What we know:
Elements: E1 7-11, H1 16-27, E2 31-36, H2 39-52, E3 58-62, H3 68-81, E4 87-90, H4 108-129, E5 134-139, H5 162-183, E6 189-195, H6 212-221, H7 226-238, E7 248-251, E8 254-256, H8 265-278, H9 281-284
Parallel strand pairs: 1-2, 1-4, 2-3, 4-5, 5-6, 6-7
Antiparallel strand pairs: 7-8
Helix pairs in contact: 1-2, 1-7, 3-4, 4-5, 5-8
Bound molecules: NADP nicotinamide-adenine-dinucleotide phosphate.
Amino acid sequence: MGQEDKLVLITGATEGVGKQTAIQLAKKGFSIVMMVRNKTKAEQAKKEILESTPSAKVDYIIVDLTSFKQVRAAAKKFNEKYDKLDVLINNAGLMYPERKITEDGFELCFQTNHLSHFLLTHLVLDKLKRSKQGRIINLSSEGHKMGKFDPDNFNAEKGYKAVGQYCFTKLCNLYFTYSLADKLKGTNITVNAVHPGVVRSGFGSDHDKGLLKPIFAIARLFMISNEKGAATSVFLASDPGVSKVTGKYFKNKKETRTSAKTHDAANQKLLWDYSEEKVGLKIAEPAL
Ligand SMILES: NC(=O)c1ccc[n+]([C@@H]2O[C@H](COP(=O)([O-])OP(=O)(O)OC[C@H]3O[C@@H](n4cnc5c(N)ncnc54)[C@H](OP(=O)(O)O)[C@@H]3O)[C@@H](O)[C@H]2O)c1
């Protein structure tokens, strides 16, 4: 308790880690705004949050993160309705079985996991500035270690491998976290990244077919629950002890070092400049 005046905006709260994060933050008194793509699942998540915390304030805004137009419309709705934002959790993410290009012309996993969250974050930043202490939490993964950063292959132009593309986007989440934390140093906003653990969520269920089915079934036995998977996001969103910690990566609620490549300033800048241009920030909104 004690967080009654605080508002959290979370993407991908209809399943897995995101839904549990919303449930647990509501229990702590946070008001919840879920940005999700499916109205039926949004209603179900809202019901579960209210079953667990009947007094919770829960709202949702529909957005498909494969569309910049929808991200802009969703952010506009949020900005019109709410005066300030305390915590933004860029949680939604997926690994997609095949190469698919979105209406904006980007590879689907890259746009969903990185570009759209990059855009959303900028569009709600003014509301975070109005919080006494704003927090941005980006869901990355230990998978970032296998991510290859090739500026000529952001959209898997050279061939698509689902795991490889996913790991690249999780590396992007770290580049974004570190760059943004640097740019926001000295402000009231912190930016950190999370590895939730290997979680028995809906993640990867698109791949849970054919020959891979028994492998997934066995692997699931060793995975942690969604509740445990949400613990680090909940900690970063609510713990007073991390109110000044920024530009870090957390596992099991503990600050953890990431590999040297995640601190490559040239690559961080390259991704930042690319993202800023492609989501249209350079034209539509003032640069940070
Ligand atoms: N599970 C793990 O072991 C693991 C490990 C490391 C990192 N992570 C990261 O943790 C985060 C949460 O994963 P999870 O395990 O909770 O996955 P999950 O159970 O599959 O949930 C993913 C969420 O993202 C949403 N989403 C996917 N595509 C979207 C789109 N185009 N627009 C809007 N929402 C979209 C899904 O919405 P729908 O319900 O509509 O499909 C769902 O709510 C991800 O960023 C993932 O990369 C997970």
